[in-house]
Amino acid sequence: MPIEVRPASVFDDVRTVIGPKSPTASVCWCLSYRIPSKLNNELRGPARGEYVAELCRADPPPGVLAYDGDDPIGWAAVAPRSATSFARNRKIPHVDDLPVWSLWCIRVRPGHRKQGITHALIAGAVEFARDRGAPVIEAYPLDNGDARVDLTMAYAGLRRNFERAGFVHAADTTSVLAGHPRILMRLDLR
């Protein structure tokens, strides 16, 4: 069955892909770059999911989901950079003053990896941003060469996957994740 990528407006589907197994867990929910650090630290347990549920009802929703039929199997966080902590991040430079969008997290559920879902999510996130008027979309993937990356830390994406989607290296950063440098890659949507 072909993979379909849709806006992440159905909270139960978002929870399936990025929610914790225990509703009382205080895990990421892909909020760490989306909201101010103070709020991120204050939101605990179920409050994190409730916050994400509100984001799913907002316009635009917080990202895109990949589906195999009705089964949500992947997630990509994408939003205007100005609405994320990347707007103030000192480790990830601003290339210019364009109102860019950021794509910063990709997750594929176990059992669905190595099937091209990441590529579908990147393409879907690009279309999501383009449809909402983004002139440029940025990503901050790991520049890992051929080195293996722990799956937990691969959420930022890998350089080669963004190159395959047409993104180009725009700047180095001082950010390091899992021992690998992160780079700033961009795709012009104009």
UniProtKB/TrEMBL annotation:
InterPro entries: Acyl_CoA_acyltransferase (IPR016181), GNAT_dom (IPR000182). GO terms for molecular function: acyltransferase activity, transferring groups other than amino-acyl groups. The keyword Transferase applies. It holds the Pfam family Acetyltransf_1. Residues 16-190 form the N-acetyltransferase domain. Keywords: Transferase. The keyword Transferase applies. Coiled coil: none annotated. This is GCN5 family acetyltransferase. It comes from Streptomyces regalis.
